[in-house]
Automatic annotation (TrEMBL):
It comes from the Bacteria. Keywords: ATP-binding, Nucleotide-binding, Transport. GO terms for molecular function: ATP binding; ATP hydrolysis activity. SUPFAM superfamilies: P-loop containing nucleoside triphosphate hydrolases. Pfam families: ABC_tran. This is ABC transporter ATP-binding protein. Residues 4-233 form the ABC transporter domain. InterPro entries: AAA+_ATPase, ABC_transporter-like_ATP-bd, P-loop_NTPase. The keyword Transport applies. Belongs to the ABC transporter superfamily. It comes from Nonomuraea diastatica.
Length: 305
């Protein structure tokens, strides 16, 4: 059974198509990341998955059941964080969490609250009023509320916004553990692409409401562009020598030469040897790889062209 499955899911607001015939699938234990420019449709998708808005056409299934507003069974197994972290400002962190535990009618609420405070490193702030929390700790409290009932599915809109670098690492570790050890499925949206590349098991690039590309980050290496950057003291001579070996050097943006020939990328040492033999040894030789950000911008740019 899939944790999330959408079939031609579409949401229109008058002339705006916020989500357009979207077909996505996330398996249990996936950390599925949605990335896209502002207005790409990520939040609209998340709201449909949570039953907060109804699709114009198409369907969404979550944990095996079609999403419908007010479905308590699905709500009991799902945790979510959307919009700005909302907590009762005058209540303490612990009181806020007790309230959620009571609303969800959890057995042994005090133990659950202690456990989630500990998991999210909120112990030093447990007796602080929510309004006095820093943005990062407010975000931790919001995550604690999403996690308190041990959900099978976590839906998180921008969960690492506002966290400091240490906080980002903590949340990454926590989400990875939940997915790996408990089989929790995590669907998240984020603009922090470097972080997404580390955390996610699948990445969906959403553009103008459509699924532009789906990536397995472990195989990103097979999909991104690579190039060999060579610097020498005499680029004209070096270019001539490399062309003599059947290669196609291009001038680099600043200086030096750029090669994209497969042979050059696989065997940069042959390039070094050829340049030494031609009397212009490399002062720099580096295989550069597009990162997720470059890859994302290139795909989005191509889609708009
Ligand atoms: N209630 C609404 N009424 C009209 N248009 C809307 C509504 N909600 C969203 N939209 C439009 O739908 C499109 C998708 O918006 P959405 O908020 O889902 O994007 P997003 O990918 O979450 O963006 P961001 O990264 O900025 O949060 C945008 O063009 C937005 O203006």
């Amino acid at each position: 059974m899939l944790a999330i499955e959408t079939t031609s899911l579409t949401k229109r607001y008058r002339e705006v198509v916020a989500v357009d015939e979207l077909c996505l699938q996330a398996a249990p234990g996936d950390i599925y990341a949605l990335v896209g420019l502002n207005g790409a449709g990520k939040t609209t998708l998340i709201r449909m998955l949570l039953g907060l808005i109804t699709p114009t056409t198409g369907t969404a299934r979550v944990l095996g059941a079609e999403v419908s507003a007010g479905d308590r069974a699905a709500w009991a197994r799902t945790g979510y964080l959307i919009d700005t972290p909302a907590a009762y400002p005058e209540l303490t962190v612990r009181e806020n969490l007790h309230l959620v535990a009571r609303l969800r009618r959890l057995p042994q609420p005090a133990a659950r609250v202690d456990d989630v405070i500990d998991r999210l490193a909120l112990t030093p702030y447990a007796e602080r009023r929510a309004r006095t929390l820093s943005m990062g700790n407010a975000q931790r409290l919001a995550l604690a509320k999403a996690l308190i009932h041990g959900p099978d599915l976590l839906i998180l809109d921008e969960p690492i916004n506002g966290l400091d670098p240490a906080g980002v690492v903590e949340i990454r570790t926590l989400l990875s553990e939940l997915a790996r050890e408990n089989g929790t499925t995590v669907l998240l949206s984020s603009h922090l692409l470097a972080e997404v590349a580390r955390l996610a098991t699948r990445i969906a690039i959403i553009h103008q409401g459509r699924l532009l590309h789906e990536i397995d980050p472990r195989r990103l290496g097979g999909q991104v562009r690579r190039r060999l950057v060579v610097a020498t003291r005499n680029d004209t001579r070096a270019a001539h020598a490399l062309a003599g070996h059947g290669l196609t050097p291009e001038p680099g943006a600043d200086a030096g030469l750029v090669l994209t020939d497969e042979r050059a990328l696989e065997h940069p040492e042959e390039i070094a040897t050829a340049l030494v033999e031609a009397g212009c040894p490399p002062t720099r030789l580096l295989v550069e790889e597009e990162d997720l950000e470059d890859f994302f911008l290139r795909l989005v740019g191509q889609a708009d062209a």
